[in-house]
Design brief:
alpha/beta; Rossmann fold; six-stranded mixed β-sheet; two-stranded parallel sheet; globular; binds 1-O-pyrophosphono-5-O-phosphono-alpha-D-ribofuranose; binds hypoxanthine; binds magnesium ion; Xanthine_Guanine_PRibTrfase; PRTase-like; metal-binding; glycosyltransferase; glycosyltransferase activity
Length: 166
Amino acid sequence: MSAPQNKSFPVSWDQFHRDSRALAWRLNSEGPFDAIVCITRGGLVPAAIIARELGIRVIESVSISSYEYKDQGKLQVLKSIADDILALDAADDKKVLIVDDLVDTGKTGRAVRAMLPNAHFATVYAKPLARDLVNSFVTEVSQDTWIYFPWDMDVSYAPPIHGSDD
Ligand SMILES: O=P(O)(O)OC[C@H]1O[C@H](OP(=O)(O)OP(=O)(O)O)[C@H](O)[C@@H]1O
Ligand code: HPA
Ligand SMILES: [Mg+2]
């Protein structure tokens, strides 16, 4: 069980695009990569941006679910990785890139790492508990912070600092 995540780090679409591009710049010197394996669903968005920047056209997904909002439950693999992509990871002259939006406890990333032992693992954000699991990331966020992604958010009324007028 990790620390309560009582701080918040809201991320806008603009910022997420900028941070994903920054990750692509870092990855540019680590490749070339023959395929991306994105961890759905959160990894789909940075994977699209990185694939565009680095000219990668083979995109595979692995579907892992464990969170119900902030509560982490049992990890379930809902879709595994195709054999031709596993073969790429095993080949000496090929390189596979794993992409996700973040690592938090590292449980999800560790499961995918075990499937692709030779791959380069990249996330946009990383929390300290799992920072060492990823090969490349852009921004470290403290363990007691919850990252709010733009696809999970909606615009809503914010009460003024002085409190309600009624
Ligand atoms: O390091 P961990 O503690 O395992 O947490 C990180 C994982 O949690 C989130 O996915 P989630 O399971 O919420 O599914 P989603 O990507 O479909 O939103 C996030 O996208 C990472 O994949
Ligand atoms: O901080 C987070 N934000 C969104 N999804 C998550 N899944 C694990 N940690 C997080
Ligand atoms: Mg995810």
